[in-house]
């Protein structure tokens, strides 16, 4: 199957990335994940505007540099750096052929942010996600989220619930 990705240099993108078979690996290896992102950003710069990490998936909004649209390369680097040194998951012949370790779902979901309203809805979706999945009562209580940084920037009032109105966002 051929996926058509929309590559726009300098754009903002929302991503959903999921572990293979939804294995809850990410929180247990959060420092490895942070290191994978740092290594990628050092080589292929981009700005993380928002992010939440849950045990089996993550959501994030990136702003790519002007003149650069290659988010696929960045995800390949992040996934490889995270997976390096972890034990393999269950591997099919196809995954073996492609030198995959069975840590991540093969693909990811992306959405190019169209405008400020679209950006705000995706920001809210990211920060409400731990509440949606029952990990916490309030977005600020989840430590693996950029919510507090968003509060510090004045994007949210502290300890105010985010409205759960996310139809058509996320694709988990």
- Strand arrangement within the widest β-sheet reads 2-3-1-4
Share in β-strands: 5-15%
H/E element sequence = EHEEHHEHH
Total number of helical segments? 5
Compute the CA-based radius of gyration. Answer: 16 Å
Assign the CATH topology.
Answer: Alpha-Beta Plaits
Structural class: alpha+beta
> Averaged pLDDT, please?
87
CATH homologous superfamily heading: Transposase IS200-like
Unreliable spans = 91-98
**Architecture per CATH nomenclature, i.e. the level-2 architecture:** 2-Layer Sandwich
Shape field: globular
Number of E strands = 4
| Structural domains: how many | 1
Largest sheet: 4 strands, antiparallel
Distance between the termini: 20 Å
As a percent range, the share of helical residues equals 25-40%
CATH class: Alpha Beta
Structure overview:
There is one protein chain. This protein is α+β, with helices and mostly antiparallel strands and 172 residues long. It has one domain (12-152): Alpha-Beta Plaits. Helices cover 32% and strands 15% of the residues. It has 5 helices and 4 strands; from the N terminus they run βαββααβαα. It has helices at residues 30-43, 71-83, 93-97, 116-132, 147-152; strands at residues 12-18, 47-53, 57-63, 109-112. It has a 4-stranded antiparallel sheet, with helices on one face. It is globular, with a radius of gyration of 16 Å. The two termini are 20 Å apart. 27% of the residues are buried. Mean pLDDT is 87; it is low at 91-98.
């Amino acid at each position: 199957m051929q996926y058509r990705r929309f590559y726009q240099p300098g754009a903002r993108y929302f991503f959903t990335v999921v572990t293979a078979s939804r294995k809850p690996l990410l929180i247990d290896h959060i420092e490895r994940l942070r290191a994978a992102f740092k290594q990628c950003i050092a080589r292929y710069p981009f700005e993380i505007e928002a992010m939440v990490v849950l045990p089996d998936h993550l959501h994030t909004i990136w702003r790519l540099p002007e003149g650069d649209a290659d988010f696929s390369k960045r995800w390949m680097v992040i996934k490889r750096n995270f997976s390096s040194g972890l034990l393999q998951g269950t591997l099919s012949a196809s995954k073996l052929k492609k030198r995959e370790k069975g840590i991540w779902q093969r693909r990811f979901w992306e959405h190019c942010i169209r405008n400020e309203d679209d950006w705000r809805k995706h920001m809210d979706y990211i920060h409400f996600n731990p509440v949606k999945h029952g990990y916490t009562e309030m977005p600020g209580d989840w430590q693996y989220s950029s919510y507090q940084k968003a509060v510090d920037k004045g994007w949210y009032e502290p300890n105010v619930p985010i409205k759960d109105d996310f139809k058509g966002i996320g694709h988990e």
